[in-house]
Amino acid sequence: MGRRRGGGIGIALVTVAALAGVSACGGGGSGSAASGDDGKASGKPSASASPSPTKPKGPPMLLETITPQTGTTVGVAMPVSVVFTDAVAAKARASVEKHMKVSTSQPVEGAWHWFGDKRADWRPKDYWPSGTKVKVVADMEGVGNGNGRYGVHSYTHTFKVGDDVRADVSVSGHTMKVTKNGATVRTLSINAGSAEYPTWNGTMAVIDKQKEVHMTSCSVGISCDKGNANYYDLTLPWDVHLTQSGTYVHYSTGDPNPGSGSARGSHGCVHLSMSDAKWFYGQVKQGDPVTITGSPRAKAPADNGYAAFNLSWDQWLAGSGSGEGTTAAL
Question: Is residue 71 over pLDDT 70?
Fold first, then answer.
């Protein structure tokens, strides 16, 4: 809702990644992350240092981002996401996938999936086992993108899958159940989107979290009229980011005591009380799955942030160039 984050890019194989952009709880519609229908436009991640390039066969094939970042601990629903600066032709995708090797400390079945021609995500068939150590080697040196560009570097990312923390939101029940490693920790009172601005259904892995986010109704196309009942311009605390189009779990001053008694609808976000929002913020990390049910809205598109598990396994494989496989031993 109004704030944009990011920096410059453009060097070969940038190795830091985040989905960033306008922060907002947005309105209805069923557009994807690319269209930003509820107002969260794509941002630009900052660039990190890269090695000196070797002489390519042609123009370089650039990687804009690789997620997760090296050294991070993520949740069980976190995909590996690689974004290319230039389009990768369909004929080259199987070859590109085979040069992006995923190795793990225990065998995990998974596959790559292309969202358009610039983004490829790898996800396990089922959630990651907690404690799994993961190494991703994008060995792009000499690999062509089918459009006359060739990779010039090999890059490595390593991360770990942490505790299995999940949040299950019932829109009709006004509750969020939080579990950790299979045990229920707490059940919280919530309010989700109104009938006019319903919340996305489905499973969304946490993108990131921020202690404060500036949210405005004007930035997401709801209303720029201060006299409108749906107008807002607020900086709100304890924000857990779920979709690139602007869905958050957070505290709202307009809905301080959420639950079935208050029956207050949001503009698409999930509201918690101040104490519950602060507690939840402290429990979750990037990649933890938040699953929302009972909303009249469709499931969030799988590329609207990291909502990979909103596709069935067959649907996921339909977007793969090389098909399913088991990770190499780490």
Answer: yes
